[in-house]
Amino acid sequence: xxxxxxxxxxxxxxxxxxxxxxxxxxxxxxxxxxxxxxxxxxxxxxxxxxxxxxxxxxxxxxxxxxxxxxxxxxxxxxxxxxxxxxxxxxxxxxxxxxxxxxxxxxxxxxxxxxxxxxxxxxxxxxxxxxxxxxxxxxxxxxxxxxxxxxxxxxxxxxxxxxxxxxxxxxxxxxxxxxxxxxxxxxxxxxxxxxxxxxxxxxxxxxxxxxxxxxxxxxxxxxxxxxxxxxxxxxxxxxxxxxxxxxxxxxxxxxxxxxxxxxxxxxxxxx
Length: 270
Known about the structure:
By secondary structure, this protein is α/β, with parallel strands linked by helices. It has helices spanning 3-7, 71-84, 96-107, 136-148, 150-162, 169-179, 183-194, 222-231, 248-251, 253-265; strands at residues 11-13, 18-23, 44-49, 89-94, 112-118, 209-216, 236-244. The longest helix has 14 residues, at 71-84.
């Protein structure tokens, strides 16, 4: 196993010819895909990995300068492709990894046949003619809460983001992976994500994109999925699901897994 694979806890499962890469979002790790993976193993080779900074990665490998922008994560993804000699894949990204995969596809469009985006957003802050869901003051409060008492922040943040009550398995799972992150790394990654603005590069993304979104998501308002659809440079399709929350593949698998499988298996009709 190479250094990149080891650093990102890369796992390759399944026996199909076609490769699917599953990429998780902030505060989680590859375990967020546990309900989806069993359905893919017969037909695909499934690549799972952890973003640097996830609680499952070695915090000594986290370079605060490298990951001050999303490009650091993009170069990691391309390095994983290179080490595994992936020449083409279906990329399934959750949350920030939608944009990480999309940015990687600008550098190397040949590596992607399609991108399936779950709960993705090019910008979280509201702007004059754009509704991202957050005001600057909201983010300052969020970062301050993370700084002052990380564990308390995790406990409050998890049910808001997942949707549902504190007792639900999905909330407990997200609380666990969130709390596994080192607090200073979690704050740094959150700042990188929430302060990013990728609207200017959307037209450079030419790979077919399947945009999947919960009807109710604290982190990404539904209008953002339509914004992506209107501004991406290639063909795209939007499906808004009846699910609640930002991690629907974890919290509402019965609703979400069939939708994901349909978008993975079928291309956009032209």
